[in-house]
Amino acid sequence: MKYRSSDNVFINCPFDEAYTDMFHACVFTVLDAGFIPRCSLEVDDATQSRLSAILSLIDHCPYGVHDLSRVQLDPSSGLPRFNMPFELGLFHGAKYFGSSNQKRKQCLVLETEKHRYQKFISDIAGVDIMAHDNSPEKLILALRNWLVTASRRTTIPPGEKIETRFNDFQTRIRKICQKEGIDYNAMPFIELVENMTDWLKINQIARTRLFNP
Amino acid sequence: MTKKRRIKNHPAVDLQKPSLVRREAFFEEVRRAQEAMKPAEQFQNVMKLLQESQKALCEAMKLPQQLQDVTKQWREPRKALREAMKPAEQFQNVMKLLQESQKVLCEAMKPPQQLQDVTKQWRESQKALREAMKPAQQFQDVLKELQESQKALREAVAPSQKYLDAIQQAIRIAGISGEDDEV
């Protein structure tokens, strides 16, 4: 299949174990909406630095989802993690300094609470940030609604539908992983995307247009 | 218009390698197909059993050789009898024809109307003659009675021989010569 960059969505979010459900919900929503989730976890090239890989991904993604909710201090190091705000900055830089294609970039900033970000990253004050309250359901709704607005696509399923299907997928994959003796939470990103993609293809739903153009 | 949403493939995903979900879905479909085939298999088993039972029934229904011979022997006389009955059937046909011809002959033998009239007249005259003979018969009866009565009278008038003998005896006894006298 031909690689279409207009379908890529850069996912910039925490990858810790506590955020697993949220991360999986985010990836599933992007796939179910008809886009391709891209994130630094898919980079497995030892010859390429992680930063250059991230820059390449940002370059090919017209859409970006940035979750800034992990502002807590890391229990082991006692220091905050800055990757998410950094990658958000790179995304904004590409949009501002890039070519005409890059200037069409659009991003969604997510946080636990709506205005908490102003306390630690006031530079982006005024940006419309969506709060998910650490709930996968709210994340799915917020992300879906933003993709509809940003892409103007009419084939994106309703948020409730995506939520239901995500729960169905979770049930299914957990059962399979239990049977196969695989830890679902530790599943690599590419394998996760592969399983989600196949499940969505097998369980296709038909979208009905309200008006025929 | 219904439009299907296209699910895009990630460029890093190996499409040749089946995922867990795809593999499980495939096996599930195979299991479902096997389940769906079960009635067909059961039907085939039932058909097979039916054919075997039919075959066994045909074997059981086959007559033993002796009975076949007897049946054959029974059929042959019947066949001969049917052959023998064929002339009788012909005879019946002939009889039928004969009866029809007789009927026609009777119809032809019926006297003509004139002869019937004459016959009728003759019968009536016979009847009238008998009627007319009846008084003659009566007269004969009366005559007969008369004759009998005359006879009886003569017998009654004529002295009996015994009486005559007795008279003669008496005369003899009385000594009366009367040899020349006639009584």
Model description:
- Chain A is α/β, with parallel strands linked by helices and 213 residues long.
- In chain A, 44% of the residues lie in helices and 12% in strands.
- Chain A has helices spanning 20-32, 50-59, 83-97, 100-103, 136-151, 159-180, 189-202; strands at residues 8-12, 36-38, 63-67, 106-111, 129-131, 206-208.
- A five-stranded parallel beta sheet of chain A has the order 2-1-3-4-5, sandwiched between helices.
- In chain A, helix 1 packs parallel to helix 5 (136-151), helix 2 (50-59) packs across helix 3 (83-97) and helix 5 (136-151) packs across helix 6 (159-180).
- Chain B is an all-alpha fold.
- At the A-B interface, strand 2, helix 6, helix 7 and strand 6 of A face strand 1 and helix 1 of B.
- Strand 6 of chain A pairs antiparallel with strand 1 of chain B.
Topology:
The complex is a heterodimer of chains A (213) and B (183).
Chain A: E1 8-12, H1 20-32, E2 36-38, H2 50-59, E3 63-67, H3 83-97, H4 100-103, E4 106-111, E5 129-131, H5 136-151, H6 159-180, H7 189-202, E6 206-208
Parallel strand pairs in A: 1-2, 1-3, 3-4, 4-5
Helix pairs in contact in A: 1-5, 1-7, 2-3, 5-6
Chain B: E1 2-4, H1 20-61, H2 65-109, H3 113-157, H4 161-174
Task: Give the class of chain B from helix and strand content and strand pairing.
Answer: mainly alpha
User: What is the terminal separation of chain A in angstroms?
Assistant: 28 Å
Q: Would you identify the regions of chain B where 5 or more consecutive residues have pLDDT less than 50? A: 177-183
The rounded distance between the terminal residues' Cα atoms of chain B is: 174 Å
H/E series of chain B = EHHHH
CATH superfamily of chain A: Toll/interleukin-1 receptor homology (TIR) domain
By CATH reckoning, the class of chain A would read Alpha Beta
| Sheet with the most strands, sense and barrel status of chain B | none
> What's the total number of strands of chain B?
1
The mean pLDDT of chain A is: 86
Overall mean pLDDT of chain B stands at 77
Number of DSSP E strands of chain A: 6
Instruction: Enter the CATH topology name of chain A.
Output: Rossmann fold
The count of helical stretches of chain B stands at 4
Secondary structure tally, helices of chain A: 7
Radius of gyration of chain B, in angstroms, nearest whole number: 64 Å
Provide the number of structural domains of chain A. 1
Helix content of chain B: over 70%
Beta fraction of the residues of chain A? Answer: 5-15%
Radius of gyration of chain A: 17 Å
Label the structural class of chain A. alpha/beta
